[in-house]
Design brief:
Elements lengths: L1 E3 L5 E3 L6 H9 L13 E2 L6 E2 L7 H35 L5 H8 L3 H28 L2 H21 L3 H29 L2 H32 L8 H4 L1 H15 L13 H24 L3 H26 L14 H31 L4 H29 L1 H25 L5 H28 L6 H32 L5 H29 L2 H8 L4
Antiparallel strand pairs: 1-2, 3-4
Helix pairs in contact: 2-6, 2-7, 2-9, 4-5, 4-6, 4-10, 4-16, 5-6, 5-9, 6-7, 7-13, 10-11, 10-16, 12-15, 12-16, 12-17, 13-14, 13-15, 14-15, 14-17, 16-17
Amino acid sequence: MEWLDEKDINHQVASCPCWKCHVFRLIGLVSAGRLAENESRLEPRSSRLSTKLELPHPPRAVETAAELVLRRRWLILGVVLVGSFMAVLDVFIVTQGLPSINTTLGAGVSDLELVVSAYSLVYAVFLITGGRLGDILCRKRIFLFGMTVFTVASALAGYAPSAPFLVGARALQGLGAALMYPQVLSIIQVTFKGSERALALGLFAAISGIGAITGNIVGGLLIQLNLAGLAWRPIFLVNVPIGIFGVLAGFLVLHPSRAERAPKLDLPGVGLISIFLVSLILPLAEGQQLGWPSWMILLLLLSVPLLGVFVLYERRRTDAGADPLVDMDLFKHRSFAVGMPLVILYYVAASGFFFTFVLFLQSGLGFSPIDSGLAFAAINTGFITASLLGPRLIPRFGTRLISFAYVLQATGLIWTMLTVTTYGTGLTLYELAAPLSVFGLGAGFALSPLLGVIFSGVPSQDVGAASGVVSTSMQIGNTVGISLFGLLFYRFLSSQLSTPITYLDSFKLTLPFLSIPSVSSFLIVFLLSQRRARQIIHRLER
């Protein structure tokens, strides 16, 4: 087997004397069996042990090399999927720890929101830039550097002595994830071909989905176990041994690679989108606690023109043939132009519901972390079921399936509100199971087909750029949803004493607002089926 190092020097694994090849031969990380027929043998007519190396016959050498290459490809996939799982898991795992963080660190309302949203905010801002750095420098280097940053940040988050320290560690985690996660798809693209690539991408999607839907359950379990009396800290510390293993394995297994034509960094674009997101998120997170001073209201109002400046700048950069942070020509494709607001609204509703729901169950009704996590098992059951059925049903029902998904989502939220109203503070997991399953069905039927519809209208050469924008929009939706609905939830709660009844009332008042993104998405999809709306949307393609 042969491989190239960072200096483009060719190595023959079976005979190279370098230390890395020696490690490969020693522990078999890249071997599907034997590198060569080099076992000791008893020579005929002699009892002495022969140390002579018997080289394989040419046909066997070819076969063994093929086995080695195959084995190494799947080892590479295993390493990068560890990184993608960690990045996705940490978007959701922290939610279950919020009440415990509030108790142990004395975190305020805005602190709790920032503990969750700081990760998504930094992740969103640097996600596309992280992918560009991998193309320019080296995907292996950026992946390993990102995983190292993520692991160190996880250790800092687990140590955090105060809420501001934890928020900073979470932001650093987001930076590590933004550097690490984009390299996964690129490494898969250059490592696999044909049907193997399709299988690898399917495993990537499955691992990402598992990370997203199990985050709340894993977080609740770790907090409930209270390992070594550390309360919420293991939800971050669990990343440390996994990250160390991933860095070591990646250093040995991954191939250096970069793009043939390295795109340029759009640093002004990164700066503009960062200023816009801060001007939008900071007032939503801190405004209520600070009493809404005039400068914060002004900052919130400035977010709209700042977004306009960013769009104009990206439009000009796209027209000039440069490498924009967001390729504005993507919005000429109808499926992409209409699908992007649907993606953002989906994550606004989902993240806002998860954030307020956990606070309601644990801080309001006194649910244990594990019981709170199990409540999400009902959502996950519906989500997984719909995700498996959705791609099979979309060819038959088209956008009607997506419309139906939003109806299910809104129905699940309304049913949850009626259940909460009926059972009050005596609410149990049993009563919540059915409405949460319906909400999960709606979420699964919405997201799985929606992504397929978005990318189906984008030319193959633009899919990479489109996926970066979609991933960034997901994290922006997460951040906005947590900040916006967290503001509403605590606004309804602030005028009353914090008792189970007040938490109950606050959650009931928040649920109708959580239905607005689902209803809005339903109308957008419904309008797509109308001839007049099609003509309007069609103008985007001119």
